[in-house]
Amino acid sequence: MLNVYFGGTLYQDLRLTSSQIKHLQSPTPQEVPTHHISVEKESSLGFLPENYMVNSFHHQVIKDLGQGLQAIAHGNDGLVEAIENKEKHVLAVQWHPECTW
User: Fold this and answer.
1) Cβ neighbours of residue 71 under 8 Å, at least 6 residues apart?
2) CATH 3.40.50.880 matches 2-100
3) DSSP 1
4) Residue ranges per domain, the chain?
5) C-alpha to C-alpha distances, 60 to 43, 46, 88, 89, nearest whole angstrom
6) How far apart are the C-alpha atoms of 29 and 1, rounded to whole Å?
């Protein structure tokens, strides 16, 4: 939603997009990490370990970044998993960290 607020666009439903987009929609419990992400080291999430594991149970994903946003984490499939705008103190992730504690 933050990406759209900043003027970005979404793939509305990954199941209905091009077959070239292969993003794991896991049938596992929400608290189980299912895929790796790569994080930009100079970002607000730079403290995370390389190839951090996250859960995945979303059907929308960023297509075009909104104004002033930076993609700071990507899945192995290249899709954006986290964004930030340091000037406005905005950080958003696609996964649900609250489910992994």
Assistant:
1) 40, 62, 65, 80, 82, 83
2) yes
3) -
4) 2-100
5) 23, 24, 24, 23
6) 24
pLDDT tens for each residue of the chain, 101 residues long: 899 999 999 886 666 665 555 555 557 777 777 788 999 999 999 999 988 999 877 667 899 999 999 999 999 888 899 999 999 999 999 988 888 77
**DSSP letter string, 45-75:** TTTSPTTEEE----S-EEEEPPTT-EEEEEE
CA–CA dist 4, 6 (Å, integer): 5
Name the residue type at position 35: H
Angle at 34 between CA 2 and CA 91, to 5 degrees: 20
User: What are the structure tokens assigned to 43, written together?
Assistant: 């970002």
User: How far is it, in rounded angstroms, from Cα 48 to Cα 38?
Assistant: 9
Check: CB of residue 66 under 8 Å from CB of residue 8: yes
